[in-house]
Design brief:
seven-stranded mixed beta sheet, globular, 231 residues, alpha/beta, Rossmann fold, 9 helices
Length: 231
């Protein structure tokens, strides 16, 4: 995993480490939430987006490479966060690494109903995402990957069924299903949590790309999951 494109913020007085895996080819939408965690006092690493140049374009490779890197460094990750397609890479990392204590999956992918290239593409392009900003804010990030790498990463999402990956993770699991997310069903998210002794949260008034635009609620959730003491 290349470190050159990571956003890393540390607070010497707070050692709780959080690592965030963003969605497919997009990261800028997660920066506000990451900075809110930094302001709260967390040590935060916001990773390059899967498929960006310099990191693996396939989700399995991305997750495995990150797991190896975390184990080599030997630092405990109190919370590993996966967003959208990043949930799949994060789950692989958590399943393979000995350093991850807690795993938070937000808008998990890919719902079994959409596990064909055509269905997944149709869901991504045509299902209305209430509360999301649309594609325009993602274009700049997409240029850091390019269409061939995005397509390869997109197809690789079909090869990472979360229900097969998560049983190998022995830490604390939380699965968040935003109320307005149409790229995955509440039934799928709830089943992932239930079958892996995790916690399921149906988050009201939130879209697939949550926590974009909602950093305060995100920070409160992280505080709760990591047992942080209020300032």
């Amino acid at each position: 995993m290349s470190g050159g494109d990571e956003l890393v913020r540390m607070d010497e007085n707070r050692t709780t480490r959080i690592v965030i895996v963003p969605g497919l080819a997009v990261r800028s939408y997660a920066e506000e939430a990451a900075e809110a965690l930094v302001a709260r006092g967390y040590a935060v690493t916001l990773l390059p987006a899967p498929t960006w140049r310099g990191v693996p374009k396939l989700l399995k490779s991305y997750g495995s490479q990150l797991a190896g890197r975390l184990d080599r460094k030997g630092e405990t990750v109190e919370l590993l966060v996966g967003l959208s397609v990043g949930t799949q890479a994060a789950a692989i990392t958590a399943a393979q690494s000995e350093t991850v204590r807690r795993l938070l999956l937000i808008s998990p992918m890919v719902d079994p109903h959409d596990r064909t290239p055509l269905r997944l593409l149709s869901a991504w392009l045509f299902r209305k995402q209430e509360g999301d900003a649309g594609f325009s804010f993602q274009v700049r990030d997409w240029t850091r990957a390019g269409i061939p790498r995005i397509l390869a990463g997109f197809l690789s999402a079909l090869d990472v069924p979360l229900e097969r990956v998560l049983p190998a993770f022995g830490g604390q699991l939380t699965v968040v299903q935003p109320e307005w997310n149409t790229l995955g069903s509440p039934e799928f998210a709830e089943r992932l949590a239930r079958e892996n002794d995790g916690r399921y949260i149906l988050l009201p008034h939130a879209a697939h790309s949550w926590p974009v635009g909602d950093p305060d609620r995100f920070v409160r959730l992280v505080d709760e999951l990591t047992d942080a003491e209020p300032k």
